[in-house]
Amino acid sequence: MRIELIKRKEHSQLMAMLSPILAVGLTLVAAAILFVLSGTDPLLGLFKFFIEPLLDVWSLQEVVVKATPLVLIACGLSVCYLSNNWNIGAEGQFVAGALCGSALPILYPEFETAATLPLMLLFGVIGGALWALIPAILKTRFNTNEILTSLMLVYVANLLLDYLVRGPWRDPDGYNFPESRMFSDAATLPGIGDGRMSIAAPITLAVVVILALVLSRTIKGFEIRVMGESPRAGAFAGFSRKGLTLFSFALAGGLAGLAGTMEVSGSLNQLLPTISPGYGFTAIIVAFLGRLNPIAILVAGFVLALSYIGGEAVQASMGVSDKIANVIQGLLLFFVLGCDTFINYRLRVVTSRSSGEKAGA
Amino acid sequence: MRVGEQDKSSKAALSGSPFGREEGESLLEARGLTKRFGDILANDQVNLRINKGEIHALLGENGAGKSTLVKMFYGSLDPDGGEILWRGKPVRISSPGEARALGIGMVFQHFSLFEALTVVENIALALPNPGNMKLLAQRISDVSADYGLPLNPQDVVADLPVGIRQRIEIVRCLLQEPDLIIMDEPTSVLTPQEADRLFLTLQRLASEGCAVLYISHRLEEVKRICHHATILRHGKVVSECDPSVETPSSLARMMVGSEVMVVSQGALSLKRGDVRLRLKNLSSPALTPFATALANIGLEVHAGEVVAIAGVAGNGQSELFDVISGEVPVNPDMLEIDGQAAGKRDINWRRKQNAAFVPEERLGHGAVPGMKLTGNIVLTRHATRDGLISKGFLSRTRSSTLEKKVKTNYDVRMSHDDPEARSLSGGNLQKFVVGRELDRNPGILVVNQPTWGVDAGASALIRQALIDLARSGSAVLVISQDLDEIFEIADRIAVISRGQLSAPENAQTMTREKVGLLMAGGAEAKAEAL
């Protein structure tokens, strides 16, 4: 008996829909096994991890707060991945954007006008975009592998942040703690409700809608999809491969930088040695779970945000390490990519020569 | 000398074979062989018998099931029904390795050679027990010289022309001393003279008792060298014959099942107008180590005429196409479109000047495989005045209208509405890709391999459309490896060889022999003499 993968003539619309759902299902099963292995009740574990956070207003708000940067970054990454540019360094672009956005309130704390916040956001976008353009230019000029360069720049950005908050940007009144000064009100994103939610959420929603329109309805979206699938055909259509590499990296970096600035300005209100629980990396999973489609990415962002909250919940209430959140995120990506195989292939089980005939017929 | 003798003896075999075929010793026999792919019966109860020492032609249009049948003989596909007999005994061939062990060798249409390695290294990689490399190199020299296909074992494949590369595949096959060699379109990459040489080798093999299963579209050569022919249509054997007593047109009729439309030069006679496309001292360096540099190419294509560029594959055709289309820029003066210097202009500027281009590779160059046809309409027509884009937004209704228009006017057949490009058959996709450009009524049309892998009916349709377009006042440049096609449609013919182009000559005065000599390097000599 052997199992064969047969290429489909066209990709299956049904599997494209089912694949993420199937992947979530398989992840739940794998998570249950993990809970059993760590000696806890699997059903209770799943409940605490995936369901309980949704039953409480406070944790629901936290889910939104965490989903916001994930969705924003994943939207930018989807443009990269659709056009076959493997930007793995959104985490670094997030940090670089946050640094540029924070420069204004940290270096000029007295500058408190209505223009402060828009300028910060703008600097954040530019900072993230410039950081992302480094691997893009290296790729277009010297043909370097953008997976490596963008990833390595994450560590550079993190160390730069660490240096700044311990050195030049340390709060002079902060008792030597490695933190920047707190931002003024003019540099803080307006909140929504009484929790930690800010206008970052509606801004993200607007980005999702605009990007969805651009990708599905405009010539730019067409260019992105064509170049991703078939660069030669893209050149035949008159599109520039290098131009699109620069564009997609700048866009992804800009959105990651925006997310970084909004995170610092809206949630943390100061720079810390660590400002991201790995949003830039988790967003890769969000992008793929969301089929590289902005609307679906919105849903996927909530699922992954839930895994952060769920991880904290099972650690607090059941004593399971919150590293389980990372494991579950990894499993999810694994299953998504695995299930995606069936969009272009179908399975055939061949038991013997005679049954091969039946399967063929 | 020796080759001449072999030739004579095989002629004797040839004259003897059509008679008493049943008495011949059967080598490979297929009985009721059936293979199904989804809803399609690719092979339906196929019976075929190859005798020892016989050159057996397998004929049929694209999609008739030739490749499927051959793949079952070579062990790369499992039959769903029927049986294969080898020397009278039923066998199950479940892998190419088993096929080779039985004594079945295959020379593929597309070579699987590593360009950066030498001849002997490539052959060693393909043999189960290559043994000592020095001895192997010696054997390669001996065997290849013996069969009139001399090879230098130490040559690097990248430096060799396609004809020689094919020899490597053949010699690799011969080293395993097969009893049956399957050849898929072996002459499609050869000059007429190279093909003649191959035929001598095949006849020599046949005279030694080795059978050849010969797949070809070229009916003239089938008539010339094959002892027996089996004709497939829609997966079924429709007839068997002795090709030496048939004519190419009677063979074509058996393949297609009806009369093939004859391409006519059109009611309007050739009226040559102004030069619309001019190449002047066009040179372009090779962009990759395996590409061909273009040197000093000069050509003028006038309104009203079809100019064809013949040549063996890999002599700079695709590089020339990329330069003319604008995918690779050159100095502005090297290329003129309707009198305007255009060497540095991009492809969409050229399209706006009413030029249109059809590349050789349909999937991945001319069309995006996973994109629907409506999307593929946008691919080449978004920049022209087709109303597909307004303020950056795509018009879905417009692209769908155009897609339907191309579909009906050029008879593109599809299983359901607006499928992905990759699900179309080669011929139908070619009709779509050509039709997409013809639909614009371009003033200049450049086509690379217009009917590569397209069945006879669709080929005639495309060729007629090219002639009609030219007669309506457009300049048409066709790059093709198919000499039959070139002589059918061209008003003037030039030949490309190693990146150099011969001076174009009127089709009436050009002969196949002349083209053959130019293909084999005469074009360079002429270009150098100039």
UniProtKB/TrEMBL annotation, chain A:
<keyword id="KW-0812">Transmembrane</keyword>
<dbReference type="Pfam" id="PF02653">
    <property type="entry name" value="BPD_transp_2"/>
</dbReference>
<feature type="transmembrane region" description="Helical">
    <location>
        <begin position="324"/>
        <end position="343"/>
    </location>
</feature>
<keyword id="KW-1133">Transmembrane helix</keyword>
<feature type="transmembrane region" description="Helical">
    <location>
        <begin position="199"/>
        <end position="219"/>
    </location>
</feature>
<feature type="transmembrane region" description="Helical">
    <location>
        <begin position="21"/>
        <end position="51"/>
    </location>
</feature>
<dbReference type="InterPro" id="IPR001851">
    <property type="entry name" value="ABC_transp_permease"/>
</dbReference>
<feature type="transmembrane region" description="Helical">
    <location>
        <begin position="271"/>
        <end position="289"/>
    </location>
</feature>
<dbReference type="GO" id="GO:0005886">
    <property type="term" value="C:plasma membrane"/>
</dbReference>
<feature type="transmembrane region" description="Helical">
    <location>
        <begin position="296"/>
        <end position="318"/>
    </location>
</feature>
<protein>
    <submittedName>
        <fullName>Nucleoside ABC transporter membrane protein</fullName>
    </submittedName>
</protein>
<feature type="transmembrane region" description="Helical">
    <location>
        <begin position="117"/>
        <end position="138"/>
    </location>
</feature>
<feature type="transmembrane region" description="Helical">
    <location>
        <begin position="239"/>
        <end position="259"/>
    </location>
</feature>
<keyword id="KW-0472">Membrane</keyword>
<keyword id="KW-1003">Cell membrane</keyword>
<feature type="transmembrane region" description="Helical">
    <location>
        <begin position="147"/>
        <end position="165"/>
    </location>
</feature>
<dbReference type="GO" id="GO:0022857">
    <property type="term" value="F:transmembrane transporter activity"/>
</dbReference>
From TrEMBL, chain B:
<comment type="similarity">
    <text>Belongs to the ABC transporter superfamily.</text>
</comment>
<dbReference type="InterPro" id="IPR003593">
    <property type="entry name" value="AAA+_ATPase"/>
</dbReference>
<dbReference type="InterPro" id="IPR050107">
    <property type="entry name" value="ABC_carbohydrate_import_ATPase"/>
</dbReference>
<dbReference type="InterPro" id="IPR003439">
    <property type="entry name" value="ABC_transporter-like_ATP-bd"/>
</dbReference>
<keyword id="KW-0067">ATP-binding</keyword>
<dbReference type="GO" id="GO:0016887">
    <property type="term" value="F:ATP hydrolysis activity"/>
</dbReference>
<keyword id="KW-0547">Nucleotide-binding</keyword>
<feature type="domain" description="ABC transporter">
    <location>
        <begin position="28"/>
        <end position="259"/>
    </location>
</feature>
<feature type="domain" description="ABC transporter">
    <location>
        <begin position="277"/>
        <end position="523"/>
    </location>
</feature>
<dbReference type="GO" id="GO:0005524">
    <property type="term" value="F:ATP binding"/>
</dbReference>
<dbReference type="InterPro" id="IPR017871">
    <property type="entry name" value="ABC_transporter-like_CS"/>
</dbReference>
<feature type="compositionally biased region" description="Basic and acidic residues">
    <location>
        <begin position="1"/>
        <end position="10"/>
    </location>
</feature>
<dbReference type="InterPro" id="IPR027417">
    <property type="entry name" value="P-loop_NTPase"/>
</dbReference>
<feature type="region of interest" description="Disordered">
    <location>
        <begin position="1"/>
        <end position="21"/>
    </location>
</feature>
<dbReference type="Pfam" id="PF00005">
    <property type="entry name" value="ABC_tran"/>
</dbReference>
<protein>
    <submittedName>
        <fullName>Nucleoside ABC transporter ATP-binding protein</fullName>
    </submittedName>
</protein>
